[in-house]
């Protein structure tokens, strides 16, 4: 009788232990939520983060690099007890990446949930070593209030003369020029051995991908013994002038308005060059109009030539310039020629308008 009771008592204990173990058995955690990717400051990488999941002991992070074609490279799964993971370029490289995270414990793992695609930029290209330093400066300076990009300002446009034979002709005239200054990157101290460098100057319309020699295909420039060169840019050079390949095409103009690059390179080593410096050719919408009228003292206008009846004559000239809002100073210059018995004497007259000055 006691033996039976002992067995029954043991069975009760085993049942209690069994039910207690069932109550403590863990369940698979839910899926992570609120996934986000944030770029790291000062480090090439992103922080992948999510909210904590109840019952999760750790998390598995899998990262897959997107590919336009071919196989997709996968990284992970990386297991972490934290609610974040640092994806670094030095570990997974550069490109666009997809990522998923799942929660896990001893019972198993949740379904993987995807976060937004993130991008890791590649390592920046190292700055090339330029052996020449080029600067461009607008002259007269300052010609306008443009602070960063020097420009040649032009007026004029298409001329229909001869259009029936070769199309309209561009005929731009410039108001100013650009001063170019080129030198070795490292100036050679006076007294040390120096070597002159022959350079070619280049022009490229921005966006064309085609560079041409300036001012023509034959000219090379020699830096002086101090390794410097100063030159003036008045137009795009001979290679941007003249007729195109077809006689029916319009004539190219060496002052065609647009955006351009200018740079220099060594003749004997194209690896030695300067940076590409931008300059613009700008068409003025309000062209400058000037006129000079020659009169006698009575106000009669001379339209051709002056033939005085005595050895002396008084001439009155009126100079008019309109549309000069772009300029601080406007100058005029003309020559009275064919004077004297043999017509060899010349007299030159010139002057400057400043501000709103008017005179005659």
Mean pLDDT: 78
Described by strand count, sense and barrel closure, the largest sheet is: 7 strands, mixed
Q: Which structural class do the helices and strands define?
A: mainly beta
Unreliable residue stretches:
160-168, 190-194, 243-247
Order of helices and strands: HEEEEEHEEEEEEHEEEEEEEEEEEEE
- Helix fraction bin: under 10%
How many strands? Answer: 24
Q: Please, could you describe this protein's structure?
A:
It is a single chain. The protein is 9% helix and 42% strand. It is mainly beta.
Any key phrases for this structure?
360 residues, six-stranded antiparallel beta sheet, 3 helices, 42% strand, elongated
Concise summary:
By secondary structure, this protein is mainly beta. It has three helices and 24 strands.
Task: Describe the secondary structure blueprint for this structure.
Elements: H1 2-24, E1 36-39, E2 45-49, E3 58-65, E4 74-80, E5 84-88, H2 89-92, E6 95-105, E7 108-109, E8 113-114, E9 118-120, E10 132-139, E11 151-159, H3 163-166, E12 169-174, E13 177-184, E14 198-205, E15 212-214, E16 221-222, E17 228-233, E18 258-266, E19 277-283, E20 289-295, E21 301-302, E22 316-322, E23 329-339, E24 345-354
Parallel strand pairs: 11-19
Antiparallel strand pairs: 1-2, 2-5, 3-4, 3-6, 6-7, 6-8, 6-9, 10-13, 11-12, 13-17, 14-15, 14-16, 14-18, 18-19, 20-21, 20-22, 23-24
